């Protein structure tokens, strides 16, 4: 059994206790004049998660807000490079990402995650790791035909040729969010319009201006 196949909530040792730091999460957040939150982007491969998340980060930067993007491919190069695409490893992939996102939120940062995260149960699991109000599901809603036409990494072509198996939308299911906090339809919009829509929602929900 690999370490990541331990049961949920099972720790290696009972002797590990959480340390509270002298500077609180509230202190760190107020210094940044923002309310930290995780923007959990979900959508098919090629739907635009990374592209829009990057554009949102640029807009937030211009507004003087502190953010960090956890991108699927990048995380798999380091922290999660020991994980394959089996079901157990996919669950562990999401678990580690949500724990890392939670630490970033504790640091006062607005976190953006860009992973397909196709299953409702896994996204709900991620939501549970964060405190109430610190998790916003962002559905990047793009029809599969459009994603396949874009095919920015040539993955649909490979999946159709049978070179990749368990490919979401083709031979693995994508469970669409039923009630996402932010819902973006990309096919009739530019990247900039989609990113602006996300930032407007953040403003509307009160995450960007704490002092005013
Ligand atoms: P994902 O991260 O969901 O796999 P990517 O962001 O890597 O998707 O790729 C999306 C592709 O679609 C990019 O090549 C991007 O330029 C293109 N694209 C076209 N229109 C849009 C749009 N409105 N929003 C996001 N991406 C778009």
From TrEMBL:
<keyword id="KW-0597">Phosphoprotein</keyword>
<dbReference type="InterPro" id="IPR027417">
    <property type="entry name" value="P-loop_NTPase"/>
</dbReference>
<dbReference type="Pfam" id="PF01583">
    <property type="entry name" value="APS_kinase"/>
</dbReference>
<dbReference type="GO" id="GO:0004020">
    <property type="term" value="F:adenylylsulfate kinase activity"/>
</dbReference>
<keyword id="KW-0547">Nucleotide-binding</keyword>
<feature type="domain" description="APS kinase">
    <location>
        <begin position="36"/>
        <end position="184"/>
    </location>
</feature>
<dbReference type="InterPro" id="IPR059117">
    <property type="entry name" value="APS_kinase_dom"/>
</dbReference>
<feature type="active site" description="Phosphoserine intermediate">
    <location>
        <position position="117"/>
    </location>
</feature>
<feature type="binding site">
    <location>
        <begin position="43"/>
        <end position="50"/>
    </location>
    <ligand>
        <name>ATP</name>
    </ligand>
</feature>
<comment type="similarity">
    <text>Belongs to the APS kinase family.</text>
</comment>
<keyword id="KW-0418">Kinase</keyword>
<dbReference type="InterPro" id="IPR002891">
    <property type="entry name" value="APS"/>
</dbReference>
<comment type="function">
    <text>Catalyzes the synthesis of activated sulfate.</text>
</comment>
<dbReference type="InterPro" id="IPR050512">
    <property type="entry name" value="Sulf_AdTrans/APS_kinase"/>
</dbReference>
<protein>
    <recommendedName>
        <fullName>Adenylyl-sulfate kinase</fullName>
        <ecNumber>2.7.1.25</ecNumber>
    </recommendedName>
</protein>
<keyword id="KW-0067">ATP-binding</keyword>
<comment type="pathway">
    <text>Sulfur metabolism; hydrogen sulfide biosynthesis; sulfite from sulfate: step 2/3.</text>
</comment>
<keyword id="KW-0808">Transferase</keyword>
């Amino acid at each position: 059994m690999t370490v990541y196949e331990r049961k949920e909530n099972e720790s290696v040792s009972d002797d590990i206790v959480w340390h509270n730091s002298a500077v609180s999460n509230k202190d760190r957040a107020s210094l940044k004049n923002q309310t930290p939150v995780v923007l959990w982007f979900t959508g098919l491969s090629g739907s635009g998660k990374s592209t829009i998340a990057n554009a949102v980060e640029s807009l937030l930067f211009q507004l003087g807000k502190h953010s960090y993007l956890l991108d699927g491919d990048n995380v798999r190069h380091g922290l999660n490079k020991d994980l394959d695409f089996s079901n157990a490893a996919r669950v562990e992939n999401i678990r580690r990402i949500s724990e890392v996102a939670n630490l970033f939120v504790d640091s006062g940062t607005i976190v953006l995650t860009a992973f397909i995260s196709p299953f409702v149960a896994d996204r709900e699991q991620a939501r549970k790791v964060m405190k109430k109000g610190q998790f916003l599901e962002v559905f990047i809603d793009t029809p599969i035909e459009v994603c396949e036409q874009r095919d920015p990494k040539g993955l649909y072509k490979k999946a159709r040729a049978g070179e990749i198996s368990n490919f979401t939308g083709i031979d693995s299911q994508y469970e669409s969010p039923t009630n996402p906090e932010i819902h973006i339809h990309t096919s009739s919009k530019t990247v900039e319009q989609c990113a602006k829509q996300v930032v407007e929602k953040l403003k509307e929900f009160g995450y960007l201006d704490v002092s005013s």
